[in-house]
Amino acid sequence: MQENSTSASEVRRASGWLVPLGIAGIVLILALLAVWLLTNLPDANAFNARVEKLFVENDDLTTQAEIKLLEILAQSGTAFSDTLSGYRMVILVLLIFATTLMVATFVLLVMLVALNRRMAQIEQSGIQVSSLMISRGENTVYLNNMGFRLTGAAMETLSVLAEARLDDDILSGAEIEAIVSGRVAAECDESAGATRIKRLRDTLGNQLVSELLVRNIARRGYMLAVDKDVIQVV
């Protein structure tokens, strides 16, 4: 248990450093990209400067048509300047939006990795049960103060497993069926006990809880994967 707790703490510490560093890296990369894009966009007044240069260099353009043409060019330059300013704002908004999405995605990925590691640790060590109280009268099992209502058959199966765990025994399917039915194990079928275990897991409902609580030991049988000191049968 101490080793698993240490591993979980190391995962949390690593995740704690990884998240801010990753977010800082994403923000820095996108900030550099924004600076590069904005600095490489043409100057908003570049077109106006060219039109002004035309006015200065061609002061001999005096006809009405030539003056009208220069006025149209000046208006086009103003429109181009306004459009380019709008493009700059659109680029900034898109970069902010992309930064937000990438940060959120990164945080979610880190959380998923940490959760998967934690699930792997739980699968290896089993559920950390502080109390397991079996109430026959209520047909209810209280697991860490969480109540699970069971059928009569499921309660019998769980009670048999709890008593076997108190004696440090592992029961085969035939032995479970024999104890519940009151017959000799040699006369019972292994599949009957396996069916009782399946129904118990189905009654518990939560697949993770049921699979880890009722452990199947290959070629030996079934047992409760909890400390026998926390088991109470009332």
Folded structure, characterized:
By secondary structure, the protein is an alpha+beta fold. The protein has 7 helices and 6 strands. A 4-stranded mixed beta sheet has the order 3-2-1-6, with helices on one face. A two-stranded antiparallel sheet has the order 4-5. A hairpin with a 4-residue loop joins strand 1 and strand 2. Helix 2 runs antiparallel to helix 3 and helix 5 packs across helix 6. The longest helix has 62 residues. It is rod-shaped. The chain starts with a helix and ends with a strand.
Report strand %: 5-15%
Rounded mean pLDDT is 75
Radius of gyration: 37 Å
Taking the sheet with the most strands, its summary is: 4 strands, mixed
Number of strands: 6
Q: Provide a count of the helices.
A: 7
Number of self-contained structural domains: 2
Helix content: 55-70%
Q: Strands across the major sheet, in which order?
A: 3-2-1-6
Beginning-to-end CA distance, first to last residue: 28 Å
Label the overall shape: rod-shaped
Structural class designation: alpha+beta
Poorly predicted tracts of residues = 1-8
Instruction: Please trace the helix and strand order, writing H or E for each element.
Output: HHHEEEHHHHEEE
Oligomer: single chain
Keywords:
68% helix; disordered N terminus; 2 domains; 234 residues; Arc Repressor Mutant, subunit A; rod-shaped; alpha+beta
What's the gist of this structure?
The chain is α+β, with helices and mostly antiparallel strands. It has 7 helices and 6 strands.
